[in-house]
Amino acid sequence: MIKSLYPTFQHWSIGGSVYIISDTHFDDEDCVLMDRCWMTPQCHIMMINDYVHKNDTLIHLGDIGNPEYLKKVKGHKVLIKGNHDKGASIYEPYFDEIYTGPLFIGDRILLSHEPIYGLDWCVNIHGHNHNADSHDDDTHINLAANVVNFCLFNLGEAIKNGMLSDVEGIHRETIDYACSHSFIGGNNGNTD
Description:
Elements: E1 18-21, H1 31-34, H2 41-51, E2 57-60, E3 76-80, H3 88-91, E4 97-99, E5 103-106, E6 109-111, E7 123-126, E8 140-142, E9 153-154, H4 155-160, H5 170-180
Parallel strand pairs: 1-2, 2-3, 3-4, 6-7, 7-8
Antiparallel strand pairs: 1-9, 5-6
């Protein structure tokens, strides 16, 4: 189990791994315009099924394309809707959980479709940017399918390998700020 997740989301990792992908754009004709070597949906699903098994969770960070392909994927499926995804009811037959906006799944882990900037106290795992140079800093992980060579991101492995080690979290940042500004100890900054 991934203990870094809020208890509400720990069920994703109880029996297996948590994998994340974004921007599969299954059957979207514009994909070739973004990347001449865009993987076919059939090949991409085969690759996903090489990793995701019935006890695993697959989190899709939006811009699915044709959701019919997801019927062939095993495991628990979670969707964070992207800018190309229609109303949530369209995706209900294909996903076990659907979210329409950014989602904090731990005190230092934010999932979203588009990158969210200005939050240096968490890691923002996102997609949306199809430019391979879009890895901006240590607090953003861009998982747009073509950027990560159509591979899945294993959340548990990333955490074990230190993904969160340089991220102090909002609570630590708030405490450090308060201590440095003498808010703790009762004098409220007074030196008298």
